[in-house]
Amino acid sequence: MSEESLDCGSVVSMGPRIDVVTAFPDMFGPVFGESVMGRSVASGLLDIRVHDLRDYSSDRRRTLDDYSFGGGCGMVMMAEPIHACVEKLLLEVMAPTTRVILTSPQGRPFDQAMASEFASQDHLIILCGHYEGIDERVADLLVTDEVSIGDFVMTGGEIAAMAMVDAVSRHVPGVVGKEESVSGDSFYSEKVFDCPHFTRPADWRGFRVPEVLLGGHHKFIQDTRRRWALSKTARVRPDLVSWKEVSTVFAEKIRKKRGRGRGRPPGVRRGAKRCGFHLALVHYPVLNKLGDVVATALTNFDIHDISRSSRTFGASAYHLILPQASQRDMAAKLLGFWRDDASRISHINRKDALSLARVWPTLNTCIQEIEFCEGERPLIVVTSARPAGDRQVSYSDLREIMDSGGHPVLLVFGTGYGLAEEVMESADMVLPPILGAGDWNHLSVRAAVAIILDRLRGN
Ligand SMILES: C[S@@+](CC[C@H](N)C(=O)[O-])C[C@H]1O[C@@H](n2cnc3c(N)ncnc32)[C@H](O)[C@@H]1O
């Protein structure tokens, strides 16, 4: 593919001509030849050319690298082949605006704004480094933008170049079918994530699409999606969000909820209720007796007894966090039996309790679902037999928070020898351990759940 434009069609490109300079041109064919990029290149919407740097090497062995002055074990890409190639391209294209981009871990971080800016140029030349990188002198002379795709080091600039070309291409008119399908994307017009998306079936393995999306009320769907997007951005990338907007949007949501007596928000099913508090039983990541992080096995006792305690004390749902698909299948089978068949054999109460159980592969997916259902992230409160540390909340304070109904709460319990550190650290609050008569402290999780629920929700 050296010195070749990728197979072009007849449409005139509205984007920049893109020249990629690399010692490994064959890496690009599969990426630029497939899917959206492949179609756009084939139709001529994108004008991308990949150049083999070895064609510009002056020696017979087509060498591109040499030793680093001053020592060190890595090789450095020589200045002359890069200079010869870039000079030829500049003279050949003579575009009004050209950017010569060096892929480098030391560059400015690549982002959507940069992709959009590059897309508005007439000509881009992207240099792929290798080994220790390129001779600094040629970089100083030619490069207009040194760009990194993240704070990590790869073996070469080819993957970085592919990522940049892909992101730039999405800004070229016609490459992505409809403008609306990109304008809602993460980072498109502002630094906020896209909202979560769902497709058919509406009920997949018992996991339902959030009801609001099925209601057909466009404005309400739009507002809800905005809230989801803001809430995930605030949680995952607090550095990006405008906290003013986050608090305004959520204050509005709470105001609407308070006024709900005067009518449901449009699009919400009749009878849909606000969730109060939830329980999660984590099977991974938890500790074993040696302190290793492990996954534990599902037990029938935990499903039944904790569902019954949850039902007794008014939990909105009981979430089983099961990382292994086989365990989730087993849970689904057990729950299916009690939910579907039990009523026929007169176990209405058991069916009632077990209908609170939900199964999730990770605690995060469970938290997201609660957030969908509540419209805000739950307060995450973890439990442990170990001392609580500085995020400790007393039982009476938490009870007061739960009584007020101001925030959804998720009480997280661990199996094995307790929750792993990463779960403990992600929590908003930690409940103190239940203490008995002495220092023997090995209650079953089922007993701990019942005692804690009695303290927080008992009469
Ligand atoms: C092994 S790296 C050189 C790393 C260099 N010695 C340093 O530590 O800054 C080789 C080449 O891979 C590319 N590369 C590696 N990591 C990158 C990143 N995060 N973003 C963009 N390009 C990268 C660059 O083209 C770089 O010249």
From TrEMBL:
Keyword hit for ATP-binding: no
Q: Where is the tRNA methyltransferase TRMD/TRM10-type domain?
A: 17-241
Q: Which residues bind S-adenosyl-L-methionine?
A: 129, 149-154
Name the keywords, alphabetized. Cytoplasm, Methyltransferase, S-adenosyl-L-methionine, Transferase, tRNA processing
Keyword tRNA processing among UniProt keywords: yes
Q: What's the subunit arrangement here?
A: Homodimer.
Q: Which family does it belong to?
A: Belongs to the RNA methyltransferase TrmD family.
What NCBIfam families does UniProt report for this protein, alphabetically? PRK00026.1, trmD
Task: State what protein this is by name.
Answer: tRNA (guanine-N(1)-)-methyltransferase
